[in-house]
Design brief:
The protein is 52% helix and 19% strand. The chain is an alpha+beta fold.
Length: 440
C-alpha cells in the first residue's frame, strides 16, 4: 500500500481506505441488505422508545411539580405540628421578618395564606372542600392558566370579598356556574359556621385529587371563619426564583430563622427542620416534596422504569448490531482473506466492520429521532393520548422534551454500540488468508 509521507497523511489515507471498504461492504447482496435494514430498524425503534420514555417522564415530573406548587407553593412555612392538617395553628404576621425572608437566595416571592375545611351543600349533593385564602400579594398566574370560565377576583386587606374560584368538577357536581351562590358549612373546634360564597371563576388543572377539594377565596374570609385577627395567618408560602431548588432554599430559610448557617448531616439535607422566631413561635419549613411524598415517590418509580427501559433498548440495539456484524464477517470471509493477503492488518479490518456498524447506527439514530420526537411533539401540542384524571392526576399524557437529554441519549447510544462492536469484529483476527480465500 502507498501512504502519504507525513504521519498525518498516512493516518488520513488509512482512514479513507477503511471507510471506503466499509461502505462497499455495506452494499452487498440481498442477505446483507436485509440484515442492514433489520439492524437499522432495531436501532431506530430503540432510540424512539427511549426518546418517548424520557419525554413522558420529564413531562409527568415537571407538570405534576408545577401544578402542586400552584396549589401549595414550593416551600411552606407553618406553625410546628400542623403537618398536612386542615385545622392549623395561626402564625402572627411579621412584616420585618418577611422582608428578610425575601432576601434569602432562591426565594422569588413570599405570600400569606390560610386554609379552612368545609362542606359545600347543594340541592342534591354535598362535597367536602378546603377553602384556601389568597392574600392581595398572592401570585395568581397559576390560576389564570387553569381558568376555563369566569374571572379571578381581586382581594384586599380592607374589605372581605366573598367571591371564590371553584374547580370544574365541583361546578359539575353542584351545578354551579359563574355568578351562582353556594353555601359552605365550616366545622371547627367551636360552633360550626356557615358562609355564602359566590362563584367568580371556574378552573381545571387536570389533577382531580386537588381539583375536587380546593376552592380559592379571600384570606380575610378564612381568618373570620377561624376566629383569627387580621394579623394571624396560616403561614407563609414561598415561590422559588428562576432555576432555584426547593431543598437548598428551605435550608436557607431555616438558617435565617435560626440565625445560623445551614446545616447538613452526613450529606443529607435537613429539610423541614424546626425553627423558632423571637416571639417563641415554633415554625417548620417544608418543601412540596415533603408535603406530598407519595406523589413524588410515584414519580421516582417512573424514573426508575425509564432507566430500565433505556437499558433494555440499548441491549436490544447492541445484540442486533452484533448479530449483523457477525453475519457480515462470515459473508465477507473471502474478502477478508484477500485483504489480509494484500497486507492489511487485523486492526484495520476490525475498524472496517466497526465503521460499517457506525453507519448503520447513525441511520437508525436519524429515523429513531424523527419517529420519537415526532410522537412527542404530536402529544405535546395535540394531547392525543388521554388519561384517567382520577388515577393519573391529569387528563392527557404530558410530554416535555429536554434537548440536552436527547443529545446525550444519541451520543451515548452511538458510543455504547460502537464500543460493543469491537468484540464481534475481533473474530476477524481468527480468519486465516490461505483458508478464507478458498471459502465459498
Amino acid at each position: 500500500m502507498r501512504y502519504f509521507c507525513t504521519a498525518n497523511g498516512r493516518i488520513d489515507r488509512e482512514m479513507l481506505l477503511e471507510t471506503f471498504i466499509a461502505s462497499r461492504l455495506g452494499s452487498g447482496g440481498r442477505r446483507t441488505d436485509v440484515m442492514r435494514r433489520v439492524a437499522t430498524l432495531c436501532v431506530a425503534v430503540s432510540v424512539a422508545v427511549m426518546s418517548v420514555a424520557l419525554g413522558v417522564v420529564n413531562g409527568f415530573r415537571s407538570t405534576v411539580a408545577e401544578k402542586i406548587a400552584g396549589f401549595a407553593a414550593d416551600v411552606q412555612i407553618t406553625a410546628f405540628g400542623n403537618g398536612n392538617g386542615y385545622e392549623t395553628t395561626p402564625v402572627t404576621f411579621d412584616s420585618t421578618w418577611v422582608q428578610q425572608l425575601r432576601e434569602v437566595p432562591g426565594v422569588g416571592s413570599v405570600q400569606r395564606f390560610a386554609i379552612k375545611a368545609g362542606i359545600v351543600r347543594g340541592d342534591e349533593a354535598i362535597q367536602g372542600v378546603v377553602l384556601r385564602g389568597l392574600a392581595p400579594e398572592s401570585d395568581t398566574a397559576f390560576l389564570h392558566r387553569q381558568l376555563v370560565e369566569g374571572r379571578i377576583p381581586t382581594y384586599s386587606d380592607t374589605v372581605r370579598n366573598r367571591e371564590a374560584v371553584i374547580s370544574e368538577s365541583l361546578s359539575r357536581s353542584m351545578r354551579l356556574g359563574p355568578g351562582d351562590r353556594f353555601e359552605v358549612l365550616f366545622v371547627g373546634e367551636e360552633t360550626p359556621r356557615r358562609d355564602r360564597l359566590r362563584v367568580a371563576g371556574i378552573y381545571r388543572s387536570g389533577m382531580e385529587e386537588f381539583d375536587r377539594l380546593t376552592v380559592f377565596g379571600d384570606l380575610g374570609v378564612v381568618q373570620r371563619l377561624n376566629g383569627w385577627t387580621t394579623e394571624q395567618i396560616g403561614g407563609y408560602e414561598v415561590l422559588l426564583a428562576r432555576d432555584a431548588e426547593a431543598g437548598p432554599t428551605a435550608r436557607a430559610i431555616t438558617a435565617l430563622i435560626d440565625g445560623e448557617e445551614g446545616e447538613e448531616d452526613d450529606g443529607w439535607a435537613l429539610w423541614g427542620a424546626e425553627t423558632s422566631l423571637d416571639d417563641g413561635q415554633r415554625l417548620v419549613a417544608a418543601t412540596v416534596e415533603e408535603r406530598h411524598p407519595q406523589i413524588f415517590d410515584w414519580l421516582g418509580m417512573l424514573s426508575l422504569n425509564t432507566t430500565i427501559v433505556i437499558v433494555i433498548m440499548l441491549a436490544v440495539a447492541v445484540v442486533n448490531m452484533a448479530s449483523g456484524v457477525l453475519i457480515g464477517v462470515l459473508e465477507q470471509t473471502r474478502t477478508i482473506g484477500i485483504l489480509k493477503a494484500l497486507g492489511m492488518g487485523n486492526g484495520a479490518l476490525q475498524r472496517i466492520f466497526v465503521f460499517r456498524s457506525v453507519g448503520v447506527t447513525l441511520r437508525g439514530l436519524l429515523w429513531g429521532n424523527l419517529a420519537g420526537l415526532g410522537l412527542c411533539l404530536v402529544q405535546q401540542y395535540a394531547g392525543v393520548v388521554a388519561l384517567d384524571p382520577v388515577n393519573y392526576m391529569m387528563a392527557t399524557v404530558p410530554v416535555r422534551i429536554d434537548w440536552g437529554q436527547i443529545v446525550a441519549l444519541n451520543v451515548g447510544t452511538l458510543g455504547v454500540v460502537t464500543l460493543a462492536m469491537g468484540l464481534p469484529a475481533a473474530i476477524v483476527a481468527r480468519i486465516a488468508p490461505e483458508q478464507s480465500i478458498r471459502f465459498q
